[in-house]
Structures are given as structure tokens and as C-alpha cells.
């Protein structure tokens, strides 16, 4: 069966989130008159990552994440700040960052010319992701963009993928691929929904989870051989 529907994760797959986060945090911390920016970043990044993982596991809600992550950051450095205010400032700054990895634009251009239907499937905050896409060079390649915040369910929840399937005209799971960097959110989510998956693993991480992707690629260039050659061996 030929693949037709390509469901792309955004952050860490197409978007250079590390660069976007670095830029946005720098702007925010300067506004907050923080002098030791590197120390704040060193604390914030793993904390934020852990909170998003907790969200994927349904251990916390999106509202808790948004309201507490910056309050926790400033509290760690003995400052009392309005976490929600700084969350809104971060949304503003991060929403301006549309950097993508090298080869992303040419990849999406090639896939579009090969008549694949491209969709974005992202866990994130609606205003941030929509603004970042608008600032990026890739928004026009996607027929639809599915954001967890707007849907009300987060990957890997099967309800997220059921929503995607229902929203895409003539969608068939056997003709679809989920492409993403996160074994839990992207690969487990796709597998649970009966969709083949591509684990984008540029850092060559060891898979320590009982979650096996249909394909594993180390570079985005390899995706072309997966979808064009259809080698599932």
C-alpha cells in the first residue's frame, strides 16, 4: 500500500525548537532584568521538558503547565513573579521563532511535488504554534494543522489521532505515516491508532522503551527513501 497522508510532528522534527527556545528565553529573561541568563536557562530547559512529558502521560494538565513553569523558574532563584504574566510574554516571544532544520523546506517541497498530502500534528499551545508557522517558511505546505491545545487531547492519546482521522477527507490509516522524534507522543500514538510510524532519531538515541517504530531514520533525507521506495523489509 502506497503512503498518501504524511503526519509530521513539528518541534524537534521540522522546527528547530532548541534554537527557538534559546531565542525566546533570552528575550524574556532580558525583559525580566535577569543577569545570569545561562543559569536560568540551565534550570528551565529540563524542567520544561519534564513537564511536557508529564502532560503526555496525563499526569498534569496544560493549564498547570502554563501557569506554573515560569513561577517555578523564578521561585528557584528566590524571585516572586506572576507566572501567568511571564507565560504570556513567553508565548509572544516564542511565537516569533519560525526556524526550521536544514533540508526541511526542500523535503516538504519534494513531497508536495510527489503528491503526498502533508499535515502537521503537534502538542503545543495554539497561539504559539500558529504564530511560529506563520513566521516559518513551511506553513503553506500543510493541508491542515492539528494542535493538541485546540483539539483538547494530546499525543499519544488515541482521541487526538481519531480527531485527525475524522478531519481528513478520505483518510485511511493504512495509507498514513506519523513522522516524529518522540517515541511516546509520536510513535506510540501512531501505533495505537493503527498508523505506521517513522521515528526521527538524529542523535542516535538508544530505544529503551517497549515501543517499536515501523521505520527509524537518522536524517530527514532518509524519509524520501521510506516513502518513495516503500521498503518495509
Give an account of the 3D structure.
This protein has 233 residues and is of the alpha/beta class. It contains ten helices and six strands, in the order βαααααβαβααβαββα. A six-stranded parallel sheet has the order 3-2-1-4-5-6, sandwiched between helices.
Fold topology:
Layout: E1 5-8, H1 17-31, H2 37-56, H3 62-76, H4 83-94, H5 104-113, E2 117-122, H6 126-135, E3 144-147, H7 148-151, H8 158-167, E4 176-180, H9 183-192, E5 196-200, E6 215-217, H10 221-229
Parallel strand pairs: 1-2, 1-4, 2-3, 4-5, 5-6
GO molecular function: 5'-nucleotidase activity
Protein name: YjjG family noncanonical pyrimidine nucleotidase
Order of helices and strands: EHHHHHEHEHHEHEEH
Distance from N terminus to C terminus (CA atoms, Å) equals 14 Å
What global shape is seen? Answer: globular
Query: Helix amount, in percent?
Result: 40-55%
Q: Could you tell me the number of beta strands? A: 6
CA radius of gyration: 18 Å
Structural class: alpha/beta
Are there runs of 5+ residues with pLDDT below 50, and where?
Answer: none
**Main sheet summary:** 6 strands, parallel
Q: Give, in spatial order, the strands making up the sheet with the most strands.
A: 3-2-1-4-5-6
What is the count of helical runs? 10
Mean pLDDT: 95
Strand content: 5-15%
Organism: Streptococcus zalophi
Protein name: YjjG family noncanonical pyrimidine nucleotidase
InterPro entries: HAD-like_sf, HAD-SF_hydro_IA, HAD-SF_hydro_IA_YjjG/PynA, HAD_2, HAD_sf, PGP-like_dom2, Pyrimidine_5'-ntase_YjjG
GO molecular function: 5'-nucleotidase activity
Amino acid at each position: 500500500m502506497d503512503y498518501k497522508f504524511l503526519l509530521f510532528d513539528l518541534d524537534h522534527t521540522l522546527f528547530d525548537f532548541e534554537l527557538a527556545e534559546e531565542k525566546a528565553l533570552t528575550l524574556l529573561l532580558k525583559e525580566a532584568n535577569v543577569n545570569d541568563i545561562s543559569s536560568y536557562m540551565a534550570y528551565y530547559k529540563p524542567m520544561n521538558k519534564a513537564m511536557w512529558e508529564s502532560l503526555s502521560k496525563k499526569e498534569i494538565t496544560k493549564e498547570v503547565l502554563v501557569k506554573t513553569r515560569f513561577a517555578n523558574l523564578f521561585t528557584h532563584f528566590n524571585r516572586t513573579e506572576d507566572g501567568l504574566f511571564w507565560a504570556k510574554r513567553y508565548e509572544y516571544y516564542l511565537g516569533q521563532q519560525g526556524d526550521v532544520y536544514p533540508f526541511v523546506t526542500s523535503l516538504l517541497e519534494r513531497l508536495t511535488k510527489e503528491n503526498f498530502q502533508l499535515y502537521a500534528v503537534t502538542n503545543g499551545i495554539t497561539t504559539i504554534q500558529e504564530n511560529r508557522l506563520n513566521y516559518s517558511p513551511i506553513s503553506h505546505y500543510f493541508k491542515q494543522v492539528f494542535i493538541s491545545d485546540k483539539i483538547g487531547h494530546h499525543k499519544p492519546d488515541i482521541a487526538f489521532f481519531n480527531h485527525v482521522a475524522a478531519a481528513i477527507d478520505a483518510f485511511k490509516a493504512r495509507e498514513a505515516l506519523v513522522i516524529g522524534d518522540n517515541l511516546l507522543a509520536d510513535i506510540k500514538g501512531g501505533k495505537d491508532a493503527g498508523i505506521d510510524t517513522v521515528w526521527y532519531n538524529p542523535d542516535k538515541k538508544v530505544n529503551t522503551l517497549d515501543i517499536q517504530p515501523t521505520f527509524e531514520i537518522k536524517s530527514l533525507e532518509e524519509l524520501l527513501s521510506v516513502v518513495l521506495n516503500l521498503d518495509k523489509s
